[in-house]
Design goal:
Blueprint: E1 2-6, E2 13-19, E3 24-28, H1 35-44, E4 48-53, H2 59-70, E5 76-77, E6 85-88, E7 91-97, E8 106-110, E9 113-117, H3 134-145, E10 153-160, E11 163-167, H4 168-174, H5 183-193
Parallel strand pairs: 3-4, 4-5, 9-10
Antiparallel strand pairs: 1-2, 2-3, 6-7, 7-8, 8-9, 10-11
Length: 210
Amino acid sequence: MFRLLHDTASGCMGYLLADEGAGEAVLIDPRGADVSALRALMVENRLRLRWVLRTHEHDAMLLRESSALATLGAPIIERQVPRGVIHFGGEQVQVLATPGHTASCLSFAWRDRVFCGGLMAADTCPYQPRPLHPEGMWDSAQRHIFSLPDETLLFSGHSRRARVVSTVQEQRMNHPWFAQASRETFLARARASASPPGALQHDEPVRLQH
């Protein structure tokens, strides 16, 4: 089972992965405000929650979200990589350290898809519209995303203009920050995005393929 959990007000995305035969599931980036609905979803589908996986959280929200999600009764993986692979039923998820959007971001690879939170979103997160660690973002994207097969699906932590999923090939060819850019060019743009409003005029608006 694979389901998208979309909060239309904020654009935040969460994901449910489940081995229905084994009755076990994981949640990726669930919202603390949705705990009651998530419990009901587990009961409805006769699933036991094995893990809560979080690609990132911002300091101002970390304690509140973690406290709410802890009531789901499953171990929470956030801000650190406890092991390379976790299991639920007969499925497995690879845990990747992908700093960039924040200094301690994680991504999660499952089958033919990667749930990469804000890694490929240089300006999408409503809580933080620019990378906190641009050097890490470049290195993480090159090492963990652009090294994957072209057809690999990439699921974001935030929707943008109704876009939730893309492919490695699309990001490699069309991403306005990464495509045909050198590391120095990318970092220069990241530094410019952190400048005060009006400090730099861009030739065109950012069109993030996300």
